[in-house]
Amino acid sequence: MKIAHISDIHIDHAVIPSRSEQFENLVINIFEEGFDHLIITGDVTDVAREEDMLLVRDIFERNGLLDWKKITLIPGNHDLFGKYELNAERVLSNAISASGSNSLKKLQTFCEIFRDVMTPDNTAHYYFPFVKIFNGPGEGVAIVAFNSVFEFSLANNPVGARGYIRTDELRAMRNPEVLDVLEGKFVISLCHHAYKILDTAVAPYE
């Protein structure tokens, strides 16, 4: 099984329309080169605009790739919150508009648009973590997808760039039934943010 991985495309069709075409050509080339699956680990859009998400979905659909067996996509902070805002007034505005239930709504919108590349279950309302199992060497391949986007917080995430994997998602992966499914498989774990333990002295945009 050949798997390609890309990330941080940052499509903003209103500002850089050529990037959409470049992205479509890249996706087409990946599958023409014989790859079986494409993983995109977030920030496929730049400013959290639904129109850009729908454009990406259309690219998948018209190329016969709107299929969980062909593509796996998870969100990045730009997909949910847009660009970093270092202006104090904008930081406050963003924190209010993207906190709590509003943050969950943004995640749900992303998941509804890209449901078909996440799960075949059309009744699902919350998607993370999710697991995909594929035939492959040995016992097969498992893709485990987490959402690492951390909601806005004036104290801990004022520009929306930090991320972490939530305890409930990690706990779900420790379920004995899940562990049985993963046993013996080559496991690929996905999240948008780099694996790093942040020191409290590290700026939130690093």
Question: Could you walk me through the main structural features you see in this protein, from its secondary elements to its overall organization?
Answer:
- The two termini are 34 Å apart.
- The chain is an alpha/beta fold and 206 residues long.
- It has a three-stranded parallel sheet, with helices on one face. A three-stranded mixed sheet has the order 4-5-6, with no helix packed on it.
- Helices cover 34% and strands 14% of the residues.
- It has helices at 18-32, 50-62, 77-81, 88-97, 100-113, 167-173, 176-182; strands spanning 3-6, 37-41, 71-74, 130-134, 141-145, 186-190.
- Helix 1 links the parallel strand 1 (3-6) and strand 2 (37-41).
- It has seven helices and six strands; from the N terminus they run βαβαβαααββααβ.
- It is globular and about 45 Å long.
**Beta strands, count:** 6
Describe the global form: globular
Mean pLDDT: 84
Instruction: Tell me roughly what share of residues is in helical segments.
Output: 25-40%
Report the portion of residues in β strands. Answer: 5-15%
Q: Identify the strand order in the major beta sheet.
A: 1-2-3
Given the helix and strand composition, which structural class is it? alpha/beta
Gyration radius from CA atoms, angstroms: 17 Å
Gap between N and C termini: 34 Å
Pattern of helices and strands: EHEHEHHHEEHHE
- The number of helices is 7
